[in-house]
Amino acid sequence: MFERTPEVKVLRDPVHGYIHVDLRVVWDVINSSWFQRLRRIRQLGGAYMVYHCAEHTRFSHSLGVYEIVRRMVTEVEDIREALSEREKVTVMLAALLHDCGHGPYSHALESVTGVSHEVFTCRIIEEDTEITRILERCAPGLAKETADVIRHTCKNPLMTQLISSQLDADRMDYLLRDAYFTGTKYGVFDLERILRTLRVNGDKGLIIKKSGVFAVEYYIMARYHMYWQVYYHPVARSYEGIIHLLFRRLKETNAEQPLLKGIMDGGNMDLDTFFRMDEYTCSCAFDMLADSDDGILRDLALRIRDRKLFKYTDSDPETDQRIRTQLAQAGYDLKYYWFRDTVAQNPYTPYTVRKDNAIWVRMEDGSVREISEASNIVYSLIHGPANDDHKIFFPEIGG
Amino acid sequence: MFERTPEVKVLRDPVHGYIHVDLRVVWDVINSSWFQRLRRIRQLGGAYMVYHCAEHTRFSHSLGVYEIVRRMVTEVEDIREALSEREKVTVMLAALLHDCGHGPYSHALESVTGVSHEVFTCRIIEEDTEITRILERCAPGLAKETADVIRHTCKNPLMTQLISSQLDADRMDYLLRDAYFTGTKYGVFDLERILRTLRVNGDKGLIIKKSGVFAVEYYIMARYHMYWQVYYHPVARSYEGIIHLLFRRLKETNAEQPLLKGIMDGGNMDLDTFFRMDEYTCSCAFDMLADSDDGILRDLALRIRDRKLFKYTDSDPETDQRIRTQLAQAGYDLKYYWFRDTVAQNPYTPYTVRKDNAIWVRMEDGSVREISEASNIVYSLIHGPANDDHKIFFPEIGG
Amino acid sequence: MFERTPEVKVLRDPVHGYIHVDLRVVWDVINSSWFQRLRRIRQLGGAYMVYHCAEHTRFSHSLGVYEIVRRMVTEVEDIREALSEREKVTVMLAALLHDCGHGPYSHALESVTGVSHEVFTCRIIEEDTEITRILERCAPGLAKETADVIRHTCKNPLMTQLISSQLDADRMDYLLRDAYFTGTKYGVFDLERILRTLRVNGDKGLIIKKSGVFAVEYYIMARYHMYWQVYYHPVARSYEGIIHLLFRRLKETNAEQPLLKGIMDGGNMDLDTFFRMDEYTCSCAFDMLADSDDGILRDLALRIRDRKLFKYTDSDPETDQRIRTQLAQAGYDLKYYWFRDTVAQNPYTPYTVRKDNAIWVRMEDGSVREISEASNIVYSLIHGPANDDHKIFFPEIGG
Amino acid sequence: MFERTPEVKVLRDPVHGYIHVDLRVVWDVINSSWFQRLRRIRQLGGAYMVYHCAEHTRFSHSLGVYEIVRRMVTEVEDIREALSEREKVTVMLAALLHDCGHGPYSHALESVTGVSHEVFTCRIIEEDTEITRILERCAPGLAKETADVIRHTCKNPLMTQLISSQLDADRMDYLLRDAYFTGTKYGVFDLERILRTLRVNGDKGLIIKKSGVFAVEYYIMARYHMYWQVYYHPVARSYEGIIHLLFRRLKETNAEQPLLKGIMDGGNMDLDTFFRMDEYTCSCAFDMLADSDDGILRDLALRIRDRKLFKYTDSDPETDQRIRTQLAQAGYDLKYYWFRDTVAQNPYTPYTVRKDNAIWVRMEDGSVREISEASNIVYSLIHGPANDDHKIFFPEIGG
């Protein structure tokens, strides 16, 4: 039996009402310096440059994913019965820790270091940190088991499905949370209904009852709209792109900036260096770079700090060429003052494309079908044209 | 100039915050007995048999449609400039009155009388009722002009579009309102965004700016889901179907039931008889029919009053035949104890199908496209398979 | 063991999310004609004449009280342990049925019949109705035990406290529900917090932990404001007062109106007559009375139906006399065309005034104090001046 | 005439729906580096250590206060008529900028520098910064006029009342906003009702109509509860207290920490140094101090970073002495490892105590009374006992 806290701890959360904690190991992880560090990494890269209230962090999101998984393993009868006590604790810990390897401005950082955040997440769990010690003190082997869920090497695929699939607690929390903090209404879907209609099927693992299909359709649409309205907003992409350019300039000039030395280390970064690289350190570093001798670093740093972002327009060969020429004539180094960014998003990726990760539905007659076969809406969406968006970003010339 | 109320009157409304009234004629219409009558006609036929809080009436919906139109003609610059003062007052009155010809259990009633509620709406406005007198006292000719908006014979098609098109104040209010009172999250969409992106185009009338397309996609999905989750819920259809059967039985047996004599009169019903037929009178009549000598009337009345509804199952020739045989053997008169009901719903009906009533979008380059050409989502939905549902309804045999 | 339903039934409710039912007896009560009758009695007498969306009924309120009690007996550890299985079922049934003896326009009706609705509630539960049979079939003796909770004769006072005290499920539901449907923000308080801090104390029964005092303060203020803003709104009192006058006129003239014959019977009314008297029957009767030979009945009936209510002003001897004189001169019968109404409301009634019904708090040191000793806010409110409102109501003279 | 933006700019805000900007000068201020800096100062000192989602910043609050003032000067007829165009623009700018002089962890900072944030606010507006230049370019003299509103030296006291009184836009926004982001329900009040009932009275300036008294009572209670539940939460005070101790240690040891050199400068700080001191710089400095040679600095910095806060208990002479002795015996320097903190909050401060800043009510008869004379609730609250809370904070001994 896993040790309980003396009484149930509750943390007020506007999305879920309360986060409930009654496991000692969960409480200890939350109070660890590694988990508290997530208060210094925002959830939404550049989106808060558009939606000014979207200042929430991976700390609250991680608690939210944990809470949804906690509800799944206690309130959904099929899951409660399919998992052992140890598996339940493990998957709750995996939910809590699934994002702990995120660095500041994750996408920009990953693209210069070439290392995915999952790698750091698993290192933080297994590489003898405070987290590792908390998990191992609770139950020997727990650290590896938790990391296994996150890196999809867990023996019981159901556990991974709960936190990483097309209908997982991670997405469920971020849609609701990002909708709440941006103030859009796009990410709201019916979590209660989905939880009530989740089932476990021997073959497929997590499935949904037919009576939950409408709620899943709504969830798929919510996700689709959040991508286009929030995550892919061009202002957010402009902000993230400039951070990427600054990181790249730092790396290529091998600039002396101790707060950002992890960028040079890349995949070899030690965890202590990684720990200290958060968005507060970065912001502070950008502020220091505003005094840099390197004009490009100085300019990019000021753009980030003071929100003097790049403009954007739809990309096509002719426009791209025209803008590039103008920039070059105005003396801009195109390596750091121009980028092209393409985003695309399918509402749902069907089984035919990605075998391991579909949403399955149990029909009234007991048969199991993929959601795109059970929902005309999803069928239509995956057979219709895909949305994509190609844009170029560049400074206002003369601006 | 139209007479104003001494100060702005506000009515608290959970959907819109407040309903604002500052026109004397609007205030007088609201206080008329014909408008107060709408407090006795529920908004959602049988859906409150499933969603127990959906007890709201056409009174609050009518106020809500008025409020949205009021905002359209005052807050949307293009509309404000496109309409004269008189046209604005007229379309607000049309919004307020567009449902005043609804009788009790409207669909059931219309199917036995063969008269659409729009006919009664226009009669109430034009046929020398209290409403007619209020309108004519305000401005001679106003009654006919208001009715013209409702029956689509208005010279300025923009006015009709505001209250009757695929993107009109009527739908906007009922989606938000029905979602609020059912407690579902399906009908919620971003009204503010839509209002902010409405424009008027010489040719098409009401159009939407490109930046409002996401909000319209969401609205289309909201409507689609409300149909399937609420309006077409089989329990609601079962309730409405039984009321239809009772009305039919009444008519065919020429039963003596003074409260429902309007049913016999059908299209010839005088307005005084119509006025008195509301859901309170009907409920009272059903209660009296629970003592009828006619066993079928008695049984159907009790089923309605005490919510002993028909069961339902998917229709197919074999099932239908089997059930019908069982019912006949159990002694049920199939004319009153069996019905088949088909519902279908397209998320959006494109221009190619219905020329006068499409949603148009002004693209960033100024061109105008139909929503299905401007939105991959809508394109996919209208080219994918349509949802329909065929069910049969019948009493539990032995139940 | 009490029989369960094959699966948990859920009813969508905008206030609580879902109402959960897993007891067969609860499900059967909900589906009985007596409980379905509550769909025909509105929750808020005349308040929907002011707040037009407050059209909700005692049906949804009764489900809401049941749901809160269900949560109390399953989620609050102290209560779960203090009650036997049978006591839990009993108190849930008492919650569901506590309002089933309400007639139409309850206050007006009670004042002419002289019989409280609790009397009818207990008769409906115990007097061999469909309800009685459902309860007794479930467990012999259950009907009387359920009624005992409602009439405060239950051996375990904790059970009564859950549904009838100054901090009970009845008030908790109606504040939240009435706030939701009126659209005011006044009735919203933190139900989750109160549920989380409820405890059972040997001596006092239900108490609240110190950490819940703020939530209780808010609840007390919410109730206070709902009284003044909604329940005591003069327009609502005007409407209810006229209904009372009409009932009185009916009784005093011994008028022939079969739908309202229960009013003549008063306390001797049989349950079948009572069953049929609901707000639909009344509304229908008012409509018929609009053709009455009695001018007073006719006028009052039209005032109710068409919302031509009495005016009101603050009462003082001089004003009262002046208005009465004017009315008499204008030919009004003062017995039916003038009334005085006083309302008063204390935010909280302390133990010193009403010994059996206080709110108790467990302090951090384990001692128990009354809320007015544990909260400066409540202390101040009960020692400050009380709010009251004296108004007279009368027809507009010449109007 | 003041220059307008080409079209109305809207910023999505979950509290107000949208922030509307149509003045060029407002848009320029928002886009200035000084205003963008507010994204790096959180709104709620230590409260996000308790309410983990309360991570919002003074940036969004400042926009919110601006939006409420914008609505006041455009939607409230009396205010619209009482102010000239220039006064309206000035008060909107004062609303936007009223918090721009806040440094990181404002209370802790002010207590070591001895300078109030208002001083910095006025310096930033008037001392030739980017802000000054934007204001003066718009209209010569505007900078001083804006600062005058903030420092209460404005000729028209109504302008100051809008942003700084007991019923001002500042409080209205922070209550709603802090309630939203903490997820408590305590701060919600009826902003629409208050705006609708605001009036201007020659003598008193801003007053409220009698029909708005309930909304003001609710607002006063909301504020009171937010203080006790959120702002005065002991965990928040523990966090802020430790930051204060660290700042004091830094100052007293004259430690070398360039990021925090402003602390040494205190009131002499130049604005460039001030600009760079934000919560990101501080966080970064704390992280660096985690390697300090000074054990006290190192320990306090780690406590802040990793949320290893001081415990707390109610203060009384005996307890205080006992704890101090234990701490001294355990080797703690009491100067940095013990503090006592008292908070007190009256729901409302009456006119008798603070003449310049009361809430006045226009009664139905046209007379004007103070809110405590017009509301029994407010009267009771100010005559009842005051809430206060005395606590001592100290490290867990052996912890």
How would you describe what is shown here?
Four copies of one chain form a homotetramer. With 399 residues, the first copy, chain A, is α+β, with helices and mostly antiparallel strands. In chain A, 53% of the residues lie in helices and 13% in strands. Chain A has a four-stranded mixed beta sheet with strand order 3-4-7-8. Chain A has a three-stranded antiparallel beta sheet with strand order 5-9-6, sandwiched between helices. In chain A, β7 (360-362) and β8 (368-370) form a beta hairpin. The N and C termini of chain A lie far apart (65 Å). The mean pLDDT of chain A is 94. Chains in contact: A-B, A-C, A-D, B-C, B-D, C-D. The interface between B and D is small, with 5 and 5 residues.
Topology:
The structure is a homotetramer of 399-residue chains.
Chain A: E1 4-13, E2 17-23, H1 24-30, H2 33-36, H3 58-75, H4 77-82, H5 85-97, H6 106-113, H7 117-126, H8 130-138, H9 142-150, H10 157-163, H11 169-182, H12 191-197, E3 198-201, E4 205-209, H13 213-231, H14 234-253, H15 261-265, H16 271-276, H17 279-289, H18 295-306, E5 311-314, H19 317-329, E6 339-345, E7 360-362, E8 368-370, H20 371-374, H21 376-383, E9 387-394
Parallel strand pairs in A: 4-7
Antiparallel strand pairs in A: 1-2, 3-4, 5-9, 6-9, 7-8
